[in-house]
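Renewal narrative, Specific Aim 1. Our central claim is that a sequence can be written position by position from structural information alone. The example that follows is taken directly from our test logs and has not been curated for this report. It begins with the structure tokens describing the chain, in the order in which they were read.
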């Protein structure tokens, strides 16, 4: 049995006893052809332009920030269903319209 003094000198496990991350949470994702985020972003931008409104107009109509809209349109973020619902109302399209360009391979 170790003395109290010896126990105090033991080095702490790395990462507080947890396993290290296997992925870098801050890494930029590799761009993928035809991924869901890109498909949604493309549709949002296309419907916005079809209505002839700016990103600023869409931000005002939805309450979504300009930065967030930019990330959505560029496919850099996966918007929540609540966000997609706000966008569909403002753009006058059904929620499913944002998924039209996305096809996931089925086995």
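The sequence written for that structure reads:
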């Amino acid at each position: 049995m170790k003395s109290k003094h010896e126990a105090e000198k033991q080095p702490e496990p790395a990462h507080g006893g947890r396993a290290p991350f296997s992925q870098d949470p801050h890494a930029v994702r590799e761009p993928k052809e035809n991924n869901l985020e890109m498909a949604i972003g493309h549709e949002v931008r296309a419907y916005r332009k079809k209505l002839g409104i700016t990103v600023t107009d869409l931000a005002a109509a939805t309450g979504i920030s300009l930065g967030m809209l930019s990330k959505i349109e560029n496919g850099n973020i996966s918007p929540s269903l609540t966000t997609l619902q706000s966008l569909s109302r403002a753009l006058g399209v059904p929620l499913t319209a944002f998924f039209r360009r996305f096809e996931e391979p089925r086995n």
